[in-house]
Write a structure and sequence with these properties.
Layout lengths: L2 H8 L7 H7 L11 E4 L9 H15 L4 E4 L13 H11 L6 E5 L5 E4 L11 H13 L3 E5 L2 H9 L2 H6 L3 H16 L3 H9 L4 E5 L8 E6 L3 E6 L6 E3 L7 H11 L4 E5 L6 H11 L5 E5 L3 E3 L5 E3 L9 H7 L3 H12 L3 H7 L21 E2 L1 H13 L3 H15 L1 H9 L1 H8 L18 H5 L17 H14 L6 H14 L2 E2 L2 H6 L6 E2 H13 L7 H8 L1 H14 L1
Parallel strand pairs: 1-2, 2-3, 10-11, 12-14, 15-16
Antiparallel strand pairs: 3-4, 5-6, 6-9, 7-8, 12-13
Helix pairs in contact: 1-5, 1-9, 3-13, 10-11, 13-15, 16-17, 16-18, 20-21, 20-23, 20-25, 23-25
Bound molecules: glutamic acid (GLU).
Glutamic acid (GLU) binds next to helix 10 and strand 10.
């Protein structure tokens, strides 16, 4: 077979050589050790939690080494593409602080465009580049066409899908496939010419020289040392519409774009043999690979399951709706990514997570467990360290979108709102009431709206409660310092036969009708409507005299 002639027949319009292309993609000028990583999503839907995970790794590895992190859109499957998915993806990632140095970006007109000199960054626009390398492989005798006549194509389209599945009897199928493959390899120039003259489409297949009995050693940066059986499958490089498969496109792109580390899901591990072959055939140096285990979750019975697309917590857009701050989600991802992150964070509470020396070696190779309880814990910690101003701004922005009436209340007097969020903040042990912005209303909504009131526990009589509230109003002076204020409440307790001291009460509860804690609770429910609320003295200070008196009086009237 005259391979050069075959190459010209199949790709008559390709005039450039791989050298011409290489010249357009000069090696990157980066400091020693700098990593070049990419996120390479197919725009088929929303960003999945399991997508943000490897993305964070890529971003960290690139940026902590002074390298480059870029976005490549792998849109070679037009059938699966979802309109607007690529734009949505970029926006979501931006929301989580994932910034790309180059790649596909959203232009001023809201449409995707390229930034950087290693583009185009959408595979759908790189057709001519792939064809140059495809032609080269044919010329080297490492790839060949398999034609389909129009009749065959029609027949294939008409095949009943079920019959197709039935036909997948493993052994029969494999042997038959292998025979068909070996026959296809024998195609002659004459047959090619005839097919082309008839206008028959072809797929381009690699000519595999591997022996699966032989193993290639391969080191995956997460999975460790692997033994990969050589590939003996003539897999498809170009589909009949000339569009490359993932295998072929990623090899060409990662080579030209200078990727040093490929971080991808472990579902690609079985394809690794194909990729090793491709890089060898193309004469490219392979980047390093990290295959990330799937994120798991616990089901109702406590069994580990893959976090699937439909699971709660999978779609990153849900997090915004639920009111999770991006900073909290990122922090949570860091705790999942590196086992020593939490320890580091305790030692460096004020440093951003980007200061953490992220280490591939500290990653779990068996899959992380996604868990809302843990996310909430992390989130509470992160929010407890934010300033009151920051919390005010973020809660207000969230509420304006998802609970507009509450948003308006928060925004009306930002100083008032900030004073509320300042309660219990800043000390060594800050309050941890909020895991999400949606938690704000149940926590502090009473400042704006005391309508909802928890019931007093049944063991207390209305007379006692009333007497305590009336007694409090009799001596209430908002100018009192905290201690003076509390002394007055103690005096009220004594007056109604309640212990003013917890020790005394605990020593002999039967000697009292109740305790100072109960009297405080009577007041708390009257003022906040809640059995549990932040520090009551501060709450009264923020509400001011008139509102405090109004609320206590209103409770007295209702009792
Ligand atoms: N487009 C591929 C995917 O979405 C990318 C895999 C890779 O990062 O190489 O799975």
């Amino acid at each position: 077979m005259d391979h050069a002639r075959l190459a010209d027949l199949l790709f008559p319009n390709v005039t450039r050589t791989p050298e011409d292309i290489e010249a357009l993609y000069p090696p990157r000028q980066l400091p020693e050790g700098a990593k070049v990583t990419r996120f390479a999503p197919s725009p088929t839907g929303f960003v999945h939690f399991g997508g943000l995970f490897p993305t964070t790794i890529g971003e960290r590895l690139a940026h902590q080494s002074g390298g480059v992190f870029y976005l490549r859109i792998e849109d070679t499957d037009a059938k699966r593409e979802v309109e607007g998915a690529a734009e949505g993806l970029i926006r979501t990632l931006e929301h989580y602080g994932i910034h790309f140095d180059e790649g596909a970006v959203i232009g001023e007109d809201g449409k995707i465009c390229d930034r950087g000199i290693y583009g185009p960054y959408r595979q759908s626009q790189r057709g001519p580049i792939y064809h140059v390398y495809a032609k080269q492989l044919v010329a080297l005798g490492k790839a060949y066409p398999v034609f389909t006549t129009k009749e065959e194509l029609e027949a294939m389209n008409a095949v009943d899908k079920k019959a197709e599945i039935k036909a997948k009897d493993w052994h029969e199928d494999q042997t038959a496939q292998r025979e068909a493959m070996l026959r296809a390899r024998e195609i002659t120039i004459e047959e090619v010419e005839k097919n082309l003259a008839e206008g028959n489409p072809f797929v381009l297949r690699i000519l595999a020289d591997g022996d699966p009995e032989k193993k290639v050693p391969f080191t995956d940066l997460i999975k460790g040392k692997l033994e990969i059986p050589e590939n003996d499958e003539d897999f498809v490089l170009l589909k009949s519409d000339g569009i490359p498969t993932y295998h072929f496109a990623h090899a060409v792109d990662d080579h030209l774009m200078g990727t040093t580390h490929v971080i991808r899901g472990e579902e690609w591990l079985p394809s690794l043999a194909k990729h090793i072959m491709l890089f060898r055939y193309l004469g490219f140096r392979m980047p390093k690979y990290m295959h990330i285990a799937q994120i798991m979750r616990l089901d109702e019975n406590g069994n580990k399951k893959k976090l699937s697309k439909r699971d709660m917590g999978a779609n990153m857009d849900d997090y915004s709706r639920m009111g999770y701050a991006p900073a909290c989600v990122c922090e949570y991802i860091m705790t999942l990514l590196n086992s020593n992150y939490e320890e580091w964070h305790m030692q460096n509470p004020d440093k951003p997570y980007t200061d953490f020396p992220f280490n591939i070696k500290k990653m779990s190779n068996s899959g992380c467990l996604f868990d809302f309880d843990k996310l909430n814990d992390v989130s509470k910690n992160v929010i407890s360290r934010m300033s009151a101003e920051e919390v005010t701004a973020l809660v207000t922005a969230w509420a304006k979108e998802y609970d507009p009436a509450f948003g308006e209340q928060l925004a009306k007097d930002p100083a008032f709102t900030t004073a509320i969020f300042a309660i219990g903040r800043g000390g060594k042990k800050p309050r941890k009431d909020l895991a999400t912005w949606a938690d704000a209303k149940p926590y502090m909504g009473f400042f704006f709206d005391p309508a909802q009131t928890d019931a007093y526990p049944e063991q207390f009589s209305s007379e006692d409660i009333k007497a305590a509230l009336v007694g409090f109003l009799g001596g209430y002076d908002p100018a009192d310092e905290m201690n003076a204020w509390f002394d007055k409440i103690k005096a009220v307790a004594r007056e109604i036969g309640y212990a003013d001291d917890m020790k005394a009460y605990k020593a002999d509860p039967s000697a009292f009708r109740g305790s100072i804690a109960d009297v405080s609770m009577f007041l708390r429910v009257a003022v906040t409507g809640k059995l549990n609320a932040p520090d009551l003295y501060t709450v009264m200070q923020i509400l001011g005299k008139d509102e405090t008196v109004r609320r206590v009086q209103s409770m007295i009237d209702r009792l």
